[in-house]
Amino acid sequence: MITLTDYGAHSDSLRRGSGRESGQAMDERTLRARMEPELPPGLTAHIDRVVVLAGTFARRHDLALASVQLAARGHDLLRAVPPSELLTRARAHGLEIDPVELREPVLLHGPLAAIDLADRFAVRDADVLHAIRWHTTGHPDYSAEAWAMFVADKVEPEKVQRRPALARVRALADHDLETAALAYLDLTLIAAVEEGWQLHPMANAARNALMARGVRDDA
Predict the structure, then answer these.
(1) Per-position DSSP letters for the chain, written without gaps between them
(2) CATH architecture of 4-154
(3) Domain spans of the chain?
(4) Which of 7, 15, 75, 169 could form a disulfide with 135 if both were Cys (CB 3.0 to 4.6 A apart)?
(5) pLDDT by residue (tens digit) across 5-36?
(6) Model confidence over 32-78: pLDDT tens digits?
């Protein structure tokens, strides 16, 4: 049986559902108060926007609001940590570092945030931690709640303003979160090809899993 201690010790085999069995000791507002002193104001503002939008998606799609907003609140806990320090922390925790992550250590902020949130902030919902761990790339096993947080992070208002192509992803999310996620991953794949950078293997896996389930972005 996989436990939250296993997840705090960075087990990659966490299964959905164990978090609900363990209980949830942290709520979104309390987590905001505890995180805020550690974050630059601009990052807190971004997270606030993601929490609001993720809540909108949760209500629209009849999802577990508290879990969606808790994941949204915690997702960027370590986003401001310098890349070299992220690598150091990942190695200290014994994480397996993908070559893409070695080149772009910022991709480690999600896995490390999940560990920190379990260890330092008493976040006990395993689904929430799983969503946070993979929030940059998505994951083949994501729940609807996880996709709500994922999409909200990608299409919060300031990001759409900076990148108008995301407006279509935002519109799709009102109707179907997985279609919106696929549209975002398609945009990311196109950018990777055009700009000559590698997509994280988990983003490829998440995209393939969506398509295997019959999700399509045909527009």
Answers:
(1) ---HHHHHTT-S---TTHHHHH-----HHHHHHHHGGGS-HHHHHHHHHHHHHHHHHHHHTT--HHHHHHHHHHTTTTTTS-HHHHHHHHHHTTPPPPHHHHH-GGGGHHHHHHHHHHHHS----HHHHHHHHTTTT--TT--HHHHHHHHHHHH-HHHHHH-TTHHHHHHHHTT-HHHHHHHHHHHHHHHHHHHT-PPPHHHHHHHHHHHHTT-----
(2) Orthogonal Bundle (1.10)
(3) 4-154
(4) 75
(5) 435 544 443 333 333 334 446 899 999 999 99
(6) 999 999 999 999 999 999 999 999 999 999 999 999 999 999 999 99
